[in-house]
Design a protein that fits this description.
The chain is an alpha/beta fold. About 30% of the residues lie in helices and about 20% in strands. It has ten helices and eleven strands. Strands 1, 2, 5, 6, 7, 8, 9, 10 and 11 form a nine-stranded mixed sheet that branches. The N terminus is likely disordered.
């Protein structure tokens, strides 16, 4: 056998930084600026984290539907996409061509509508191409997340929805530490009905307790298929796992979002599903899910 080491060389993604590069994380990693203070996010009334211990449960889908449902309720909403290795929010909202600009207060998020009621910040806007991989070590990811939290000029927002990557890794610690002084309202945990997903989300619930993040509730995504013609529901996976998890964790169960092929099709082309299909079961469920968020006391 050859004793030579095999070295894999990954291309470093080209990031289309705003003009003032002095405020960005260095290419060597690390750093990232101070933790966020209440003054930095003074215009943001509520911060809600969307978490899941496992990938593939539709966490970003749930985050976008929560955000658009809140906008439909007349709220001004921002989405912070800190899933650095899988930034899917820009495509889901039809913002792949969006560009981040610099202003005196920091980075200007990309707006999804003319009324500027829905704004987004994602590393997807900074990549040279949509298929460029982000191959970064922990310190650089941490620095990037800290800058997203401390240097984005969100302005006045009713809700900032933070879409996190799966697991309990450096990214989560960076979010928690950067937001600690602001005291986020809490986290929504997303799972699917299967036992494997539930086990991972239990770990996420344990992470929230250790990090002192209130758990606002559990959402069971992909919970059965509802036929759009006859409204009959078929449990493609197992059923009731999300409710059992919420009962076990002693937190609210927010709802079951069914599988609807039209939702996936709408997200693929950047259309707002809730606006297009207000008669759907998904619309009804998501509308109920956001009610506890609308009832959160203002700061």
């Amino acid at each position: 056998l050859c004793c030579c080491a095999v070295v894999y060389i990954f291309p470093v993604p080209h990031l289309a930084w705003p003009k003032n590069k002095s405020t960005m994380a260095s290419e060597s990693g690390g750093g990232g600026g101070p933790a966020a203070t209440p003054e930095v996010l003074a215009g943001v009334k509520h911060v809600v984290l969307v978490l899941s211990g496992k990938g593939g449960v539709g966490k970003s889908t749930v985050a976008t539907q929560i955000a658009t449902a809140l906008v439909s309720e007349g709220k001004k909403v921002g989405i912070l996409d800190v899933d650095l290795c899988g930034p899917s929010i820009p495509r889901m909202l039809g913002l792949e061509e969006g560009t981040v600009h610099q202003c005196a207060e920091g980075w200007v998020p990309v707006y999804a509508d003319r009324e500027q009621r829905l704004s987004v910040m994602s590393i997807g806007f900074l990549l040279g191409a949509s298929d460029d991989p982000v191959v970064w070590r922990g310190p650089k990811k941490t620095g990037m997340i800290q800058q997203f939290i401390t240097q984005v000029a969100w302005g006045e927002l009713d809700y900032l929805i933070v879409d996190t990557p799966p697991g309990t890794s450096d990214e989560h610690l960076a979010v928690v530490e950067s937001l600690r002084s602001y005291r986020p309202d809490g986290a929504v945990l997303v799972t699917t009905p299967q036992g494997v997903a539930l086990n991972d989300v239990r770990r996420e619930a344990s992470f929230c307790r250790k990090a002192k993040i209130p758990i606002l509730g559990v959402i069971e995504n992909m919970s059965g298929y509802v036929c759009p013609h006859c409204s009959e529901e078929v449990n493609v996976f197992s059923a009731g796992g999300g409710e059992r998890l919420a009962e076990e964790a002693k937190v609210p169960f927010l709802g079951k979002v069914p599988i609807d092929p039209r939702l996936g099709a709408a997200l693929d082309v950047g259309e707002r599903f809730l606006d297009k299909f207000p008669e759907s079961e998904v619309f009804a469920v998501v509308s109920r899910i956001v009610q506890p968020l609308l009832a959160l006391p203002d700061r």
